[in-house]
Amino acid sequence: MHKRVLNFCVIPNHQGNTIGKILETCLIKWTIEKVLTVSVDNASANMVAIDYLRKKMMTWEKKPICAGKYLHVRCLAHIVNLIVRSGLAILDRLVASIRNAVKYVRSSSSRLDVFKKCVAKEKLECKKICVLDVPTRWNSTFIMLDTALELRKAFDRMAEEEMKSWKRMRKKQKLIGRTGISQKCLGKGLGHQLKLTGRQHQFL
User: Fold this and answer.
1) What Gene Ontology cellular-component terms does the record carry (predicted)?
2) Which of 43, 113, 127, 138 has its CA 20 to 30 A from that of 65?
3) In angstroms, rounded to a whole number, what is the distance separating the alpha carbons of residues 28 and 33?
4) 3-state class of 73 per DSSP?
């Protein structure tokens, strides 16, 4: 069995007839007259496209097998993806939490560097880096969860260090806030004193 990319083009719109015409043009251009099946997912536009292609192929000299009754083969990967996504919906909150953690780590290069240091401190044998999934592809979600599980200790360490850093920052903010109030009070006192001194000077 050979695999070839026959065409790669921009589709002007996602209407079924448009997709069907593009498929028809590709087959004619490559002089492909024998077509057993066409594998696409279950989107309504794809079903319309296959119906359009079937009608056109019925007018060809070499008609499709069984009048094109089995021309449309549902994409197995898409079906499996729908099944797995349905199962993952039960764990949606847990998966979302892990996804948010990965997003946080990968949101900037500095955070990613901190995470790598946490991996080194934990002496993890895992050489992978946390990856963000594509929600529409269950296998990418599996890779994200599997990698996050191996790097769990690094996530825990980073969370602890971030919390400590946040607490230190809060303490500094409180001290700065108190200092600011003291400076304002001191400024008012000095201003009042200067005014009094000026009056006394004038009086003298």
Assistant:
1) nucleus
2) 43
3) 8
4) strand
- Residue 16: partners with Cβ closer than 8 Å, 6 or more residues away: 44, 45, 46, 47, 48, 49, 51, 52
Q: What is the pLDDT of residues 34-56, one digit of tens each?
A: 888 898 888 889 999 999 999 99
Q: What is the DSSP string of 17-58?
A: HHHHHHHHHHHHHTT------EEE-S-HHHHHHHHHHHHHHT
pLDDT (tens digit per residue) in 98-108: 999 999 999 99
**Residue 92 in tokens:** 């949606």
**Calpha distance 144→17 (Å, rounded):** 38
Start-to-end Cα distance in the chain: 110
Phi, psi for 180 (deg, rounded to 5): -60, -40
CA distance 122 to 157: 8
Q: What are phi and psi of 76, to 5 degrees?
A: -65, -40
AA identity, residue 20 = G
pTM beyond 0.85: no
b/e per residue 124-163 (b: at least 16 CB within 10 A): eeeeeebeebeeeebeebeebbebbebbeebbebbeeeee
The token pair at 171 is: 């303490």
pLDDT of 77 > 50? The answer is yes
Amino acid (one-letter) located at 58? M
